Amino acid sequence: NVDDIITLIKAAPTPADAKRGLMERTWRSAVVEEMLVRAASDASRPDGLLPEFGLSEQGYRLSDAQAQAILELRLQRLTGLEQDKIVSEYKDVMAKTLDLLDILAKPERITEIIVTELVAIREQFGDERRSEIILQTHELSLEDLITPQDMVVTLSHGGYIKAQPLADYRAQKRGGRGKQAAAIKDEDFVDHLFVANTHDYILCFSNRGRCYWLKVYEAPQGSRVSRGKPIVNLFPLEEGERINAVLPVKEFSDDQYVFMATVMGTVKKTPLSDYSNPRKAGIIAVALDEGDYLIGVELTSGTSDIVLVSNAGKAVWFDEEDVRPMGRGARGVRGMRLMEGQSVISLLVAESDQQTVLVATENGFGKRTVLADFRHSGRGTQGVRAIADSERNGIVVGAKLVNDEDEIMLITTGGVLIRTRVAEIRGMGRATQGVTLISLDDGEKLAGLEKVAESVAEVDAEVESEAETANPTVNPENEPNPESSEPTESGEA
User: How far apart are alpha carbons 361 and 47 in whole angstroms?
Assistant: First the structure.
């Protein structure tokens, strides 16, 4: 019927007429009759085929789908060669059908096929199990739910502690008025501040030489204007005991040491691992003489350089190896010789002699000097001058080792905090009086200073960049900063 089909299609004016002509005609085909010999007439009918279509005694009538399929065929598929291919495929399908029916009729063949497939699976996946199945569940702790972030932890002289995100503060120009760090009473002031991650540990050392253990996220959180909570609620402090030295620690290792100094100039170092399991009531960190108390605690490698600074403006520089490791109950050895009325106010651990020593006085003045300008005076000596002793400066209240990229935080006795970049404080000689670091109100004194991590500068750069974008008309070189006042610098004494 190939020629008849081609003639019909060519004679039709439209594809729809050709399709209708194919469906209205009854077709006879030797190929169809040969197929019907091997299949019952009912089995040859596709599912859903209407009664008027398909095979009948008069011949074969094409359905809508069959006629459409013929119209979509290319001419070469209507040749006799294509018919032979269709017959061959039909025979293969019928042979496969007979084989499957034989399998279903013979249980022994089904068993044989199952065994063959199982053997193939064993050969492919029969290696030893690599995963271990255990009947155990993992419980989440509170620490697992805490987001790691840098926090500013403050401790007031009256014993109030709090933590707040470091991003709450932005840098100001040297000599600025600062921002309120804590809402405190008139008789109280912030005397300790440090930056640590929420998952770090805090070793808290009391004035009586005891050590207490705390996680940073356990410290009560608050805003800049909140007072915090009494630290006595966190530790069982005795009457007259207060926390005056803290040490942020990430992990307790055997190759690090806790180096501490007291107000009377005594120094001592103990392996950090000795502090990994403190008791609820605290543990002994150092045995103190009457009237002595801790002023600083630092982590060291065992070969660091140690610098002690006194309130008289002198500094002593010596090797850590000059102090042998001692147990927690030992008293320590002399680190700095002091005159009557003098005391040690800062313990510094130097990694390079190119670092600068930043010294601040109670009247808001300070300066920085390269450590290389100091000399190794040796442990137990009075040291050399770090800043000029004058009535204008007052006594020294703090000292830190800093680099140009560092930032510092200054704390006043009124609870005001200002953050400034070290690069804005120019280097000066050891005997100079320094420059203004912070403008103080009447009756206010500078209580201390702390160094901030380098990442703070990156945060501030983004904040200032956004501010400049929002205010493109402001010229920072000509417009005054309402929160800062440019200080005057004093010459050498």
Answer: 99
